Amino acid sequence: NYNGTLAFGGATSPLPTVSDTTAALLYVAKLNGTTGAAIAASTWGTAGKVIPYGVTVDANSNIIVAGSMGGDLPFGGSNNLVNSGLTDAFVAKLTTSGASFTTAWAKSFGDAAYDQQARGVAVSSNGDVYVAGLFEGTMSLAGSPAITLSANSNANTDAFVAHLAAADGSAACGHLYGDALGSSGVTSITVARATDNAVVIGGGFASKM
To answer: Smallest Cα–Cα separation from 65: which of 49, 46, 52?
Structure first.
């Protein structure tokens, strides 16, 4: 994220100046692997703090970024994310378009009263997205049917993992881990890109998972 001014040079234009000192907007930049020269750069957000905790790239060079949003996060059109209150978890899939990025899809998960954060993101061999983190309150994952995760205790965080479809970000499944007595969270996730697409997570817990 950034505040103030941010310019990468190369083929990209300087990103818009953020004069609100309470804000921190999301940016993604693509750099040449040999020289580090900027190929593409874009920013999203209007106010509040956006914290991107994880980023990965799938086999088709799509970029998936995940984190927490403390304000609205408009990715454009039907992908404009509206903050529910406090911090919501978010994940977005981006494609390179010239010197900037376009959004394939974007999802946010949260409620009005508690904090939710996506702390890691990974992709499987078929491009499906796995996102993990920690939360209080409830998280509704859009799918058919929709999946709702409800924390064991809103005094402590629970860990979560969600499996999202590559095409549109709809939820295939979601799980929470933890209990009411202590905080739990996932801080990293990866997927073994083999036939089983095994998911590996790491984090911490204070009571039981």
So the answer is: 52
Determine contact, residues 123/64, Cβ cutoff 8 Å: yes
**pTM higher than 0.90:** yes
Find where tokens 């549109």 sit. Answer: 168
pLDDT per residue as tens, the chain (209 positions): 999 999 999 889 999 999 999 999 999 999 999 999 999 999 999 889 999 999 999 999 999 999 999 999 999 989 999 999 999 999 999 999 999 999 999 999 999 999 999 999 999 999 999 999 999 999 999 877 889 999 998 899 999 999 999 999 999 999 999 999 999 999 999 998 776 778 999 999 998 88
Instruction: Answer whether 65's CB lies under 8 Å from 55's CB.
Output: yes
φ, ψ for residue 24, nearest 5 deg:
-150, 110
Q: Of 133, 127, 141, which is closest to residue 63 (Cα–Cα)?
A: 127
SS3 100: strand
Of 135, 99, 106, which is closest to residue 26 (Cα–Cα)? 106
**3-class SS of residue 62:** coil
